Amino acid sequence: MLLGRVARMYYEHGLTHQEIADTLGVSRIRVTRLLAEARETGVVEIIVHVEESLFADDERDLAAAFGLRQVWISPSVADEQKAARAFASVGAEALAAKLEPDAVVALGLSTAVALVAEEFPDHPLAASFVPVAGSVSGLVNGANPHELALAFARRTNGRAFHLPAPLLAASPEAAAASLADPGVREVLELAARADTLVAGIGGTARGQGLLLSSLGDAERERLLADGAVGDLAGRFFDADGDAVHGALDARVVGLGLDELRAIPNRLGIARGETKLAALRTALSSGLVNLLVTDSDTARALLAG
Amino acid sequence: MLLGRVARMYYEHGLTHQEIADTLGVSRIRVTRLLAEARETGVVEIIVHVEESLFADDERDLAAAFGLRQVWISPSVADEQKAARAFASVGAEALAAKLEPDAVVALGLSTAVALVAEEFPDHPLAASFVPVAGSVSGLVNGANPHELALAFARRTNGRAFHLPAPLLAASPEAAAASLADPGVREVLELAARADTLVAGIGGTARGQGLLLSSLGDAERERLLADGAVGDLAGRFFDADGDAVHGALDARVVGLGLDELRAIPNRLGIARGETKLAALRTALSSGLVNLLVTDSDTARALLAG
DNA sequence: GGGGATCGTGTACATTTGTTCACAGGAATG
DNA sequence: CATTCCTGTGAACAAATGTACACGATCCCC
């Protein structure tokens, strides 16, 4: 158990990597790596005994300003990679806090949610994870709803459901056909009865989000003309938070905005300047009642 | 609660000191210090989940070779300060392992024991701490038996006893007078009934230990001539582990070697080349049956 | 048995962390 | 009111830690 000896020498006796390497007859770099492994595998556990959250003030203020049930804020950092991980881990914390054993969780398609899945701690609570919309083909990272559900299910020892349909059908008719499929229908019905929705919130800037980037400019213009300011789990909404019906909307295979709104816990996960407008609407119109964002976005929302 | 926020940003989100400083608007150096404080005060707790001890093999071997009940080994490091702290913390661990609630602990005068007291964790078990010998005047650090007992008592919410007498009386007659004092007698009687003795083991090299360094060269030569190889809690012993009686011994105010030997748990705390001979004798003659030492000393003992 | 991927390793470097020092403000003391 | 002694602060430096890269071994597949 070299790992354990190294970990104890470092954390309990305060020796340096070099000193440990010398007494144990291995290279310093190896000690460095063993220590990293010890932290990752949980051999070394670091607990911060603090009840209050990092941005308690802003969280309280945001909840009050938009009538939200609870808000979680992650620290914004210049290093984007680090910021993303921190954001995801706060998202995971938020979801874990709302998740009860045997819960049914509806999952929106979103890179943010995918990152949360990565960071989700291994807690066996046997929940069910259900996509609220179909898959996008040609996704590089595993952000497809099904994979996402699988990732969550693996970590919670729960069940993952598959929605055998595309997010965006070729035509309204094709979408209707998909929705009529018993396999699709069943899963969507389950999603509609979920206790908790976890979804990203998308803006309308070019190239934003998984759905928009798969569309052409023409379709995007039409959406904007129809008053769209953002989307929640594949459904666009206008400045009042009402659904933007139209050619695009009819092609989406998934729960409608009203069905999403009927889910009791609606956790929105989003950050960044490009999402501010969409966020403001989603929050003030009650599309989501739980929010995970980062400190910069939080401050911008409060300032607005 | 700046401390807590900093600690969480660092340990839970992996931000660097600089990044934390930027988001919180304080200097990086302040973050560094807050983090150190968080670790010291226990706001941040680091647990290494490893059952086996660092030098399990050597500990087993040493116990077998000298017929000891248990052995604890701390890592030897070039950095003397660090080595001393590691040694002391292992000593504290050892003592804590042997200490039961309401135990009576006899304390030998020794810098090693003093360091252990510093590192002793705050565990309320209401033990009594009793010196086995009188005080040395003009000690810089707080290694006097009474202070030592106080330090332990404070950390365990226990009781400290004071032996109102010098370690070394001016004459055998003065020592006898001290011993006849009811206050002294009472405390020593309590010490003799202790469950556990904690004492350093001293060598006979010049300047070694608190007792020897307070003697002149002549007295040291006499001791050597009488066959002394080391001391335990102020009492010198010869190569057989028997007491070296004589002018010096008669002036010591404290428990005799036989009384010390009658204490069930006898924890010896010593390390270093200069103590090897004394240690060998103390171990093989059964003066102590529990040992705390460092890895270099352990290896030397095993090699001999 | 050769080619290629993969893993573990250490070197050299970049980054992060910790420490020393000198200074400034504020409380205690003359 | 001046002086001294703190305590807390950051700048500059020293040390420790982490990372990119390149090398060699091993395993696997052809």
Automatic annotation (TrEMBL), chains A, B:
Record Pfam families: Sigma70_r4 (PF04545), Sugar-bind (PF04198)
Species of provenance: Agromyces soli
Family: Belongs to the SorC transcriptional regulatory family.
Cross-referenced PANTHER family: TRANSCRIPTIONAL REGULATOR LSRR (PTHR34294:SF1), TRANSCRIPTIONAL REGULATOR-RELATED (PTHR34294)
Superkingdom in the source lineage: Bacteria
Protein's name according to its UniProt entry: Helix-turn-helix domain-containing protein
Residues of the Sugar-binding domain: 59-303
RNA polymerase sigma-70 region domain mapped to chain residues: 8-39
Keyword DNA-binding on entry: yes
Keywords: DNA-binding, Transcription, Transcription regulation
